[in-house]
Amino acid sequence: MEELIARVAAAAGIDAELASKAVGIILAFLQKEGPQAEIGQLMAALPGAQELAASASGGGNGGGLMGMVGGLMGGGGGVMALGGQLMGAGLSMGQIQSVSKEMFAVGREKAGEDAMGAIVGAIPGLGQFV
Questions:
Q1: In 3D, which of 26, 15, 47 has the Cα closest to residue 97?
Q2: Is position 7 within any domain?
Q3: How many domains in the chain?
């Protein structure tokens, strides 16, 4: 997990604390929205991912206005709600894309291209960020 956080922080030009928070938010989102078999592969390939996702999903910060809008759309609001949460955590749109791209690059290295492709394919709109 430390390697993932360091790579995400470097790619996005953010500190490790914010990178950790962003990765946790994304992992929690993937657990909720993604195909369970492939999410299980990803979580198993990233030691500490389960704990990071749990800490992010229990945070209670709905992502401000975007999170509220996402909540009103039903369910979690999909990728829009995820973006709102990440912006609420302090990331710009450019940083969100950098974080996502690097995180999925590490996911491909650790869990495999097939698992990550299935995750991206199963979540509408996710492909534009990775």
A1: 26
A2: yes
A3: 1
Half-sphere exposure (Cβ direction) of 67: Cα atoms closer than 13 Å: 14
Q: Name all contacts of 27-34 with Cβ < 8 Å and 24+ positions apart.
A: 27/52, 27/53, 27/56, 28/53, 28/54, 28/56, 28/57, 29/76, 29/81, 29/82, 29/85, 30/119, 30/123, 31/57, 32/57, 32/76, 33/76, 33/78, 33/122, 33/123, 34/119, 34/122, 34/123
pLDDT (tens place) for every residue of the chain, 130 residues total: 999 999 999 999 999 999 999 999 999 999 999 999 999 999 999 999 999 999 998 744 444 444 444 444 445 579 999 999 999 999 999 999 999 999 999 999 999 999 999 999 999 999 888 8
- Domain annotation covers residue 88: no
Q: Is residue 31 part of a domain?
A: yes
Residue 50, in any domain of the structure: yes
Range of the domain at 103: 2-61+93-129
Report the pLDDT value the prediction gives residue 114, as an integer from 0 to 100.
96
